[in-house]
Hints:
The structure is a homodimer. The first copy, chain A, is α/β, with parallel strands linked by helices. Chain A has two domains: 4-176, Stage V sporulation protein AD (Peroxisomal Thiolase, Chain A, domain 1); 182-338, Peroxisomal Thiolase, Chain A, domain 1 (3-Layer(aba) Sandwich), CATH 3.40.47. The first copy, chain A, contains ten helices and 15 strands. In chain A, the strands form three sheets. The first copy, chain A, has a seven-stranded mixed sheet with strand order 1-2-10-15-14-11-12, sandwiched between helices. In chain A, α7 links the parallel β11 (232-235) and β12 (261-263). In chain A, α6 (204-223) packs across α7 (239-252). The model of chain A has no long low-confidence stretch (mean pLDDT 96). At the A-B interface, α3, β6, α4 and α10 of A face α3, β6, α4 and α10 of B.
Amino acid sequence: xxxxxxxxxxxxxxxxxxxxxxxxxxxxxxxxxxxxxxxxxxxxxxxxxxxxxxxxxxxxxxxxxxxxxxxxxxxxxxxxxxxxxxxxxxxxxxxxxxxxxxxxxxxxxxxxxxxxxxxxxxxxxxxxxxxxxxxxxxxxxxxxxxxxxxxxxxxxxxxxxxxxxxxxxxxxxxxxxxxxxxxxxxxxxxxxxxxxxxxxxxxxxxxxxxxxxxxxxxxxxxxxxxxxxxxxxxxxxxxxxxxxxxxxxxxxxxxxxxxxxxxxxxxxxxxxxxxxxxxxxxxxxxxxxxxxxxxxxxxxxxxxxxxxxxxxxxxxxxxxxxxxxxxxxxxxxxxxxxxx
Amino acid sequence: xxxxxxxxxxxxxxxxxxxxxxxxxxxxxxxxxxxxxxxxxxxxxxxxxxxxxxxxxxxxxxxxxxxxxxxxxxxxxxxxxxxxxxxxxxxxxxxxxxxxxxxxxxxxxxxxxxxxxxxxxxxxxxxxxxxxxxxxxxxxxxxxxxxxxxxxxxxxxxxxxxxxxxxxxxxxxxxxxxxxxxxxxxxxxxxxxxxxxxxxxxxxxxxxxxxxxxxxxxxxxxxxxxxxxxxxxxxxxxxxxxxxxxxxxxxxxxxxxxxxxxxxxxxxxxxxxxxxxxxxxxxxxxxxxxxxxxxxxxxxxxxxxxxxxxxxxxxxxxxxxxxxxxxxxxxxxxxxxxxx
Lengths: 340, 340
C-alpha cells in the first residue's frame, strides 16, 4: 500500500509501523523526578564518566540507542536508517554518539521537536517499505545547552520564572514493519513554521505554543477527531507557561483539551521539589518521556491512543542577538496500541 | 508501488519522481566563476541588502526557493513538505528563510551533504505517495560560515592550501510525482557515518573523502554498475585534496572513476583566477551547482545519468576544541533524464 494523505497535512500510515523497542537514558536530576521509574538508565554524573559534557551527551545517545535496540531484539547495526538530531551546534550529540553504528544516518534539526520529527520520518519510511527497521534518536544535556544557548554555568545567572530547565537525557525508538502487539504509528502531521513574534529566549513556551496549537488543530481537523478521541494529547515541552497558552487558545475555539492534555516538560520534574521554573525542555525532554513513561504506559494499558506533538524553537543565539523573533515548529505523531 | 530496497543500502524509487523545477541564487564571487551562466540570480552585495550576513543567507534561500517554485510552475505554498538545512548553528539560514512559506518544514542537519539528504528524502516521500510535491532547499554563506567555524573575517587569518572556500549560495529543487521529460530520481543511497580520524578542520576534503568513497562504492555495488554506467559521478565538495583521495582509493580497488568524476567544489571556482585554495565548500556549493549547472546540463542533453554524492563533515568547533576527529557522511542520489 502506498502513502495516503488526509486533509491539509496529515499522512496516513496504512501499514501501522510498530515501535518495537524504546529506551531512555537520563541524568541525575531527571532520575530524582516523578518519572524516575520509567527511565532505563540514570547517570549520577553529569559527565557520564567522559571528559566533557558534550561527550557525556553522546554517551547518553549511545546508551539509549543500544538499550532500545536490545529491547526491540535487533542488533545495533540492524536498522536500515537512523533519523537523529539534538540541540547542539552541528548536532554533535547524536552525530558523535551514533558515529560507530554503521547504520545510514539522516541528521535532523528540529530543535525540541526532533523526537517527533525523527519518529515521523522513521515511521513513514518503514510504512512505505523503504526500511524494515528504522530508528529515531534524540538528546539534550543541561550543561551543554546552557553554555551554548545561555550563560556559562559558573556564572550563576538568574533565570526568570518563564525559563525552562533543559533535560539531560536521550530517547531512542526502533520502528519496524512487524506483527504483534505494540504501540503503532498510525498518522503523522508535519508542522509548518509559526512565528508569533516572541523574542524572549527565556520564554520558549510562549514562542512554541502557537506552533503546537496549529499542528494539533490541523491533526484533529484532518482526521475529523475531537480531543477526547485521544486518551492523551502530549506536547513536547511547552512547560507551564506555553501549556497554559495552548489550553487557552483551544478554549477560545470552543475546544476543551484540558481533560486529556499533558506536557512532557511538566511531567518530568516536580515543580514543588525541583527548582525548574516553568518545567523541563530540550529535545531530550520529550524524547525521554516518550521513550519511557508514555510508551511504557501504552504497553501497560494506561493509554490506548495518544497524540505526541513535540515543539521546537528554531532560533539561535546569533539570530536572537540580531533582534530576530523565534520561529517555531511542531510535528504530531499519533500512536495507537494494537496489533499490526 | 511500495518502496523497494536493493543490496546493502540502496532504495529504488519505482515511480521515478521528477525534479520539475530547480534554481540557485549565489554571491558575487560565484557569479564571477566558470559556472556564472548557470545561476538564476547573482547578488553583488554580501549582505543582499539585509542588515546581517545571516539575514543575507536567508534571503538567498528565499530567492532560490521562490525561483525553483516558479520554474516548476507551482505556488510557493504548494509543496506538501520542505526538507531543508544549512551549516549555521540551529540551521537559521533555512529556518528563517523559509519561515513564511506555510509549508510543513522538516529541518535537516547533514553539513555539506544536506543537498543530497534533502533531495533524497523529498524524492522518497514523493515516490511513496506521501507528498505530490516536495522541496529540497540548502544554503551556505562565506561570511556566516567563516565567522562561525573559523575566524572573524576582519582578522584576516591565513588559510592553509588544503582549506576550502565556503560558497555563498542557495539551491532549491522541487520534486513532483508527474509525467513529462525531467531529471528524475531513480535510486538513492543514504550514507553511514565514516570517521577516518582526521582532526584538521582545514582539511575537510581528506575528512570527507572516505565517506564519499564508502557511499559511491556501495551505490555501484548495490546496483551492479560500474562508474562508466554514469555520465557523471559528482561529489559535493571534496575539493582538489579530497577529490584526489577519492580517485586514488577507487584506483586501489582497480576502479578508474577519473573519466566520469567531477566535484562541485572544483567546478564552481577557477583556481587560476580565484584564490580559493582547494576549492569551494559549504552546503550551498553542491546545492547551487546541482540546481543550476548539473540539472540544466541534464535538460540540455549534456548528461543522461548522473550520481550526485554530497558529503558532509559532522564536527563542530566545540568538538574540534575538545580534540575530536571529524566524522563524515555522504548521501548519493542517482538522477536520470527521462519520461515518468
